[in-house]
Amino acid sequence: MSLAAPSALGTLRQTLSFAGRSPRSEVLSYALLAVMVQVALSLLFIFTLDFEVRMLARKALAVLIALPVPALIARRCHDHGRSGSWAWLAVFPFVLWLVRSVLAHSAGIEARIAFDAWTWPLDVLATLASIAVLALLAIPGTRGPNRFGPDPRAQAPLPEAGPPD
Hints:
Helix content is 65%, strand content 0%.
């Protein structure tokens, strides 16, 4: 794998790093890794955990998988010269999902339904925010360096050949 296509593990190493730039290939590799981990562990959970524990484990896994996403989105925004604060667009739908999940688990489905009856307009905003985040992730970055750093797609220069020993 070249420097132009960072690995999903590189994304994990930069979980809390909002500095620098990330190419679209980093988003794709992280998404692929996240799906593979989710599928593998979900299959394991099916055979080892009862239903309620399995649902909690899957939600905990979703939270863990989502941890690097705000920093990754901020670095993608930097790649096309935008402020990383656009990453907050991704946090809103996630927090809405998390509140609903915690409410359903702790207070029951009736509380969740009552919450949804009052907050359904937020779903429209969450959907629009999610679409905006997907667009930000898909927009190609600027060529060459920008104020956030060098172009992550640029190949590293080859070392110059020195005189033979």
